[in-house]
């Protein structure tokens, strides 16, 4: 009896020691608790400081390290700070993997599918397909710009009727979404589509509910059985069901209407690839197609519209900047001139304002999680295979060594003494390497054209009766501007 108790005691002590023992030369960080690691500490600190990105930066400063080592539940999680180290991670092959955890599989409807969560040959094949065929459909070319201009015309028509009280990011999100939708399905999605508003609301809820580590649900998936609402399980299930039903409807319609040589949108081109008899065709399934659509849908809808939301918020908070933007636009264009993305070199101050908005309020403070595909080292520290790596873009954009007074909104930091644009390699909103953002070209076009076309016709100010914004972002998977409403007043040109 006593021997059994003693053996059990020894087993428990040994297990606890193994739970809190760090791998040799693992990056600095706080001590780990048995079973939960640093999860309670990180959640508490994130809530106190206003976001996971702030909590991670706080811990990195506390432990005086540019590579922070944590354990969240059973997973080793390392966060990387400073531009040189982040650049190394982004371009190095051993950091190209994606974690295989419950949250990411749930995001992909039970399996790792699409281009965001896959890796290796599967990811490479699908990514190359998407890049190639989006270009063939006009991505980054005149046809795509024409789609954006058509959406801008719709927006200007609405503002002409009544622009007295509008929530900017929600107002602009359908514009970006519609361009992506047309490229994927060949159809223009209507602003009056109630399902579109519901999906945008679901995305916003999802973003606020989770962080880039997937929230508590990643470490403790069994919580979905006992606390499905609190853990966020029901929310993700709701998003998944809505998205899958939506895209499968269009996939079925496309399959019914497909014939050899039909290629006017991404789904038709994908179906053509499904019907080829090649080794790569095994990756072209309905499940993969749904997730490819979701990846493009989520990535394009939120990040671009939220960046524009912050950009117009800065114009309200800094009216002198708005005035200088409009003066530069007026210098080169009259009311009836057409503006193209290729004209941006004429508007260096406008570009500087947009670059500074991205730096000052970058909507993705923590990059999508990477997985170490083999034992490796970073900054002299040992990272075991399958370690999750988080990238702190927030730290780059707010590092005093990179930017003078980073807490101040100052577009002039991107201009030289002659007023010419002075880009900085340390601002990397679309990442680097082979996992660089697929939607970069669309995002740049949308942000520039929407910003310029609206401000050359309208002054923006806070809508009457609206609470003055503080400019402080709302944290989640992506940062979003606090809710504010805008009055668009037509300019006399």
From TrEMBL:
| Family matches, as Gene3D superfamilies | Cytochrome P450
Residues reported to bind heme:
437
Q: Which GO terms describe its cellular component?
A: cytoplasm
SUPFAM superfamilies reported in the protein's UniProt record? Cytochrome P450
Q: Which UniProt keywords apply?
A: Heme, Iron, Metal-binding, Monooxygenase, Oxidoreductase, Signal
Q: Which GO terms describe its biological process?
A: organic acid metabolic process; steroid metabolic process; xenobiotic metabolic process
Extract the signal peptide range: 1-18
- Please give the Gene Ontology molecular function terms for this protein: heme binding; iron ion binding; oxidoreductase activity, acting on paired donors, with incorporation or reduction of molecular oxygen, reduced flavin or flavoprotein as one donor, and incorporation of one atom of oxygen; steroid hydroxylase activity
Q: Which cofactor does it need?
A: heme
Similarity remark: Belongs to the cytochrome P450 family.
- According to UniProt, the name of this protein is Cytochrome P450 305A1
